[in-house]
Amino acid sequence: MNRKNICSSFYYYKSKANPVVRLLCFPYAGGSALAYRQWTQSLADEIEVCPIQLPGRENRMAEEPIRALPKLITLLADELEPAINSSIPYAFFGHSMGALISYELAKEINKRSWKMPIQLFLSGKRPPQLSKKERPTYNLPEKEFIDELRKMNGTPEEVLDNKEIMDLFLPIIRADFEIVDTYQFDLSSPLSCPITAFGGLNDPLTQKEDLDSWKELTTSEFNIHLFPGDHFYLFEHEKKLLKAIQEEFFYAFHRPS
């Protein structure tokens, strides 16, 4: 895939001369491709990091954020088709909402009979077959909604307290929360690709037993890695996470056939 054909969803993307695998990274609710900007410098040269930019943020700010997962999945499948069906193997990494996107996109790829990812790295997210939370949060009054964001500990306090910034970003964050809150799970059939689940040991939103349940959604191998930290452990322990991803890739390429 040369630079003229770079997927329109890629941002902070740096091509590698001879990548062995591409890692397509999907953001958490309210996040952007920025979260994965440094990964290409930290991972091995054989791994080409492809941060995915969703509509409504940074370079795609002029686009309306998408509020329904089926619509987003269709858009992403169409945009990412050149990377998915290239000669280079690929994998997905997604944190929180990004994990849900990764899983549903893999289902869509399977439905289209395209080449499947060699691995799904699903982080900080309960698998979709588990019961939903009691009430949606995307439509809460502003103060209550910001309080929910504060509990997740992923947004700096100075940002939450800045009305101008929040007025700009709240519509995007609400749209992402609506994607998650209105999602309807349909099992259809388990995926054929391996799943690795990641999580924080002190994540109040996702317990270890929750992450264990991802193994129900694949007929292939399943593994789990836990790190110190809460829901956003991946920022504080990025090096440990990336080391685990590299080790998983090494195993994937040396897995007995």
Structure write-up:
The chain is α/β, with parallel strands linked by helices. It has one domain: Alpha/Beta hydrolase fold, catalytic domain (Rossmann fold, 3-Layer(aba) Sandwich), CATH 3.40.50. Helix content is 37%, strand content 13%. The protein contains nine helices and six strands, in the order βαβαβαβαααβαβαα. The chain has helices spanning 39-42, 69-84, 97-111, 142-152, 157-160, 163-181, 208-212, 233-236, 238-253; strands spanning 21-26, 47-51, 90-95, 120-123, 195-200, 222-227. Strands 2-1-3-4-5-6 form a six-stranded parallel beta sheet, sandwiched between helices. β3 (90-95), α3 and β4 (120-123) form a beta-alpha-beta unit. The protein is globular and about 55 Å long. The two termini are 28 Å apart. The model is unreliable at 1-5 (pLDDT under 50).
Element layout with pairings:
Elements: E1 21-26, H1 39-42, E2 47-51, H2 69-84, E3 90-95, H3 97-111, E4 120-123, H4 142-152, H5 157-160, H6 163-181, E5 195-200, H7 208-212, E6 222-227, H8 233-236, H9 238-253
Parallel strand pairs: 1-2, 1-3, 3-4, 4-5, 5-6
Helix pairs in contact: 2-3
CATH class: Alpha Beta
Mean residue pLDDT: 90
What is the rounded distance between the termini?
A: 28 Å
The helix tally amounts to 9
Task: Characterize this entry briefly.
InterPro entries: AB_hydrolase_fold (IPR029058), TEII (IPR012223), Thioesterase (IPR001031). By secondary structure, the protein is α/β, with parallel strands linked by helices.
